[in-house]
Amino acid sequence: MHRTFVKRLFSTYLLGSGIVWSILILPLFPFVGRRGRYWLARLWCRAMVAMLRVICGITCSVEGLEHLPDGPFIMLCRHESTWETLAFMALFPRRISFVFKRELKRVPFFGWVLVGLDMVSLDRGSLRQAHQAVTRECADKLAKGDAVVIFPEGTRVAHDAPLKLASGGVRLACATRVPVVPVVHDAGKVWPAKGWPEGPGHIRVIVTPTLPLDCTIPQELNKLAQAQMDEALAALR
Fold it and tell me: What structural domains does the chain harbor?
């Protein structure tokens, strides 16, 4: 009974505050510029992290921030939950741009904010055209100094599921010549891929070392990313 109440309370807060905050900040978007829009959205993400702790008893920490490059980079991240898509903007000191499916743009309020944040949308139609379009968009965001976050498994997976990386992220790295930083976490333990937070706990995010820039073969770079992420995931299980 208590767990059900906590889920309903947090979901009500998340959806309600998201709508209210969107209504408040969307009229400001034309006047505050790209940096200002991100700052406004980040305030709500920080509030979400705080309320997740207050309502659900879920805390979080990030290990390995010293591995982040000074300039733009590509983050290959495990995708286990809704949590990382909301919390990363609050937890990482750098501006990040997610690669998200284009259908999300049509979601009222949330999708409108995404459009204003100038992130990278993915059309899952033609794979070749999608890859070309995403490469162009990602290159544009990297040129602006962003960290581009890619979920190389393509969809949310359970925490104990085997890691299976597609090569899109490393091929982008080879095309743009920017560093790749593999990242894992265990959010799926407390906030599963489908559903709402299950109960109190602590989410660990591990930023692993930057992959070597002199590796220009996507298959080899993918093997290195897989090895680092598997090792870090083993520490979370």
Answer: 2-236 (3.40.1130)
**3 state SS of 77:** strand
Q: What are phi and psi of 226, to 5 degrees?
A: -60, -45
Q: What residue has token string 């790295």?
A: 173
Distance, in Å, from the CA atom of 111 to the CA atom of 223, rounded to the nearest integer, reads 34
Compute mean pLDDT per 10 residues along the chain, 237 residues long, and list them. Answer: 84 94 94 95 97 96 95 94 95 92 83 89 63 82 94 89 88 88 96 90 96 82 93 92
Q: pTM of whole model > 0.70?
A: yes
Residue 14's Cα: distance from chain center in Å? 17
Strand partners, 77: 183
Give every CB contact of residue 231 below 8 A, 6+ residues apart in sequence: 208
Cβ–Cβ < 8 Å for 133, 123: yes
